[in-house]
Amino acid sequence: MTGRTLAERRSKVLGPAYEHFFDEPLHLVRGEGVWLWDKAGRKYLDCYNNVPSTGHCHPDVVEALSNQAATLNTNTRYLHEAIVEFGEMITAKLPEGLDVCMLVCTGTEANDLAVQIARHVTGNYGAVVSEASYHGNSDLVLKLSTDVYPVEERPDWLAVTEPPNLYRGPFTRADDGPGAGYMELARRELDALGARGHAPAALLLEPMWESNGPMVAPADYPKALCDEVRARGGLIISDEVQAGYCRTGKNWWGFQHYDIIPDIVTCGKPMGAGHPLAMVATRRDIAEKFARKYSYFNTFAGNPVSAQVGKAVIEVIDGEKLGENCENTGNYFNAELAKLQEKHDLIGDVQGRGLFYGIDLVTDPASKTPFTRDEIRHLGSLIVDEGVITGTCGRYGQVLKLRPPLVFSREHADIAVAAIDRGLTRFAAERGGS
Ligand SMILES: Cc1ncc(COP(=O)(O)O)c(C=O)c1O
After folding, report:
1. Would the CA dihedral through 423, 428, 429, 434 be positive or negative?
2. Which of 31, 72, 88, 144 is spaced 20 to 30 Å from 201 by Cα?
3. 270 shares a domain with 258
4. What angle do CA 158, 159, 160 make, to 5 degrees?
């Protein structure tokens, strides 16, 4: 069966809503650590996938999964040690006071439940997100995902803040006190929300503003925004679906970079290293107020197999010191990407921390005109051809997204940077540049 034939069958049976990442669909058949192999036996360095946080097919995770799958799989309505132990392991990673962990299957479910809880507990209905946000795809959470639907369909209960992009936002590194500038804009949006008759139930914070391309915000902005939302009666939900689980370095959670203690923390993707496992962690008083009115059941979430996987993932991250690796390799990767920026005019900016970077690509550094989504997708295809898998994000789709499994080493960073260098050189040549 050729790749093309499979692609045609895929599009026929799954329908037209499903995209491919690259010009030519990749047909992957095996993974190990940071490496992936396609059907033809070609090996690629994975510089994009955060879901296999511990690396593709980590033997400890696979063993935990298969042992439990061969023994028993039920649900959270029965007692099971692994479920409780997993919850205890997660809450041990959170600040004191966030000691209740509700289990769900996806990031969408986590944010959906978190907002339902916030609305119930505060009695408010509004929500605060940023431009080009993505928090998931249920009816409720899609409305919080400003990246994916037209502006004119935004509900009146939504306040949308400007992402603190210090490269291409209204306040940059060149300005004094950019955090105060972004706060002023946020206050205006919150006032406008109030004028539409809504107080915020919650701010959904993306600690890296991931969909915009990972960002390092002005140090004072996130906390000031949280304080302002709290003063207006809202809770703080830190959406750690991408930023959590040591993605940003030694800190287990993204919010820890900003001196914030959220009321609710949601996470998903990296928790099961490929197995559908997600959570809503919160304070006991919040969980109790919610439970006085509602019970919660989720058939698959936190079943014994998922719980064993979740435990194994945390044990691997701790045992292999992947947080420290993320910090150390990340600093090296960041420095190498800065060198690459000096070499290529097409790179307007590199932002990120830990093992999460975005390369903002511009047709011209002076105007900061962004490349289009399709152009970056083509660049990604050239880089795949050079043996490295990257992704795309950004408000205009202009950001090359680098977010590898946490087992990424300096040697892997060198391979990735060299492939991106060659890909950019080809891309520039195709456009008639050097
Ligand atoms: C920040 C963030 N939150 C939530 C989600 C939704 O997670 P899921 O796809 O598991 O529903 C995503 C998915 O990309 C995400 O990036």
Report:
1. negative
2. 88
3. yes
4. 110
CA of 136 to the centre of ligand 1 (A): 5
pLDDT tens digits along 62-78: 999 999 999 999 999 99
| Interatomic CA distance for residues 372 and 385, integer angstroms | 20
Determine which residue's CA is closest to atom 2 belonging to ligand 1. 135
pLDDT digits (tens, 9 = 90+) for 210-240: 999 999 999 999 999 999 999 999 999 999 9
* Burial track 225-255 (b if 16+ CB lie within 10 A, e otherwise): bbebbeebebbbbbbbbbbbbbbbbbbbbbb
Residues 325 and 313 in one domain: no
Plot region of 291 (φ>0 → left; ψ -120 to 50 → alpha; else → beta): alpha
Reduced DSSP (H G I as helix, E B as strand, rest coil) percent helix, strand, coil of the chain, to 5: 40, 20, 40
Integer Cα distance of 307 and 318 in angstroms: 17
Which of 135, 245, 279 for mutating ligand 1's site (highest number of atoms within 8 Å of CB)? 135
User: Which one of 134, 247, 279, 393 would you pick to mutate in the ligand 1 pocket, going by the greatest count of ligand atoms within 8 A of its CB?
Assistant: 134
Ligand 1 neighbours, Cβ below 6 Å, are 106-108, 111, 134-136, 206, 210, 239, 241-242, 268-269
CATH number at residue 158: 3.40.640.10
> Helices 373-385 and 410-430, interaxial angle, to 10°?
120
Domain that holds residue 48: 3-54+321-430
Residues 229, 338: one domain?
no
* Residue whose CA is at the smallest distance from ligand 1 atom 4: 135
pTM higher than the cut 0.90: yes
CA separation, residue 211 to residues 22, 130, 165 (Å) = 18, 10, 12
Same domain, 216 and 328: no
Asked if residues 283 and 118 have their Cβ atoms less than 8 Å apart, the reply is no
Contact criterion met (CB below 8 Å) for 333 and 357: yes
Ligand 1 centre distance from Cα of residue 108 (Å): 6
